[in-house]
């Protein structure tokens, strides 16, 4: 089986899941394995990856690049109607103003404080 070495020098039977970070920015595979599964940084925005291949004579290619857009986390918006209520009264909570660059799959409403 091919070997995968990440930037920390740890070897695993490939293809492997690796996390590329500023302190460990690269992963090298041994032919014929040409794939690495990458955990993208825990951030949003654009990240660029590059690939350089080396032949059996040690000659390196020019870099090829791929840019990936990392989806931003959703934004929660909560409204309570009415905002003031008598003890034991009813209110309506709405997360309808929430947004996502994908689609929202669920809304979890939680009572954060409970009067004594």
Radius of gyration: 24 Å
The termini sit apart by 63 Å
> What pattern of helices and strands is seen along the backbone?
EEEEEEEEE
Unreliable runs = 1-12
| Portion in strands | 25-35%
Shape category: rod-shaped
Structure notes:
This protein is mainly β and 116 residues long. The chain has two domains: 3-70, no CATH class; 72-116, no CATH class. The protein has no helices and nine strands. It has strands at residues 3-6, 11-13, 17-19, 27-29, 37-39, 45-51, 64-70, 79-81, 92-94. The chain has a three-stranded antiparallel beta sheet with strand order 2-1-4, with no helix packed on it. The chain has a two-stranded parallel ribbon with strand order 3-5. Strands 6-7 form a two-stranded antiparallel ribbon. Strand 1 (3-6) and strand 2 (11-13) form a beta hairpin. The N and C termini lie far apart (63 Å). The relative contact order is 0.13.
Summarize this structure briefly:
The chain is mainly β and about 120 residues long. About 0% of the residues lie in helices and about 30% in strands.
List the topology elements:
Blueprint: E1 3-6, E2 11-13, E3 17-19, E4 27-29, E5 37-39, E6 45-51, E7 64-70, E8 79-81, E9 92-94
Keyphrases for this structure?
116 residues; mainly beta; 2 domains; 3-stranded antiparallel sheet; two-stranded parallel sheet; 9 strands; 31% strand; disordered N terminus
């Amino acid at each position: 089986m091919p070997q995968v070495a990440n930037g920390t020098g740890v070897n695993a039977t490939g293809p492997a899941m690796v996390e590329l970070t500023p302190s460990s920015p690269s992963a090298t595979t041994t032919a014929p394995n040409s794939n690495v599964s990458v955990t993208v940084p825990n951030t949003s925005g654009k990240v660029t990856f590059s690939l350089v291949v080396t032949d059996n004579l040690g000659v390196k290619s020019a870099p090829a690049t791929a840019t990936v857009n990392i989806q931003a986390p959703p934004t929660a918006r909560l409204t309570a109607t009415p905002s003031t209520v008598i003890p034991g009264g009813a209110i309506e909570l709405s997360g309808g103003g929430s947004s996502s660059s994908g689609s929202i799959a669920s809304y979890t409403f939680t009572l954060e404080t409970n009067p004594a």
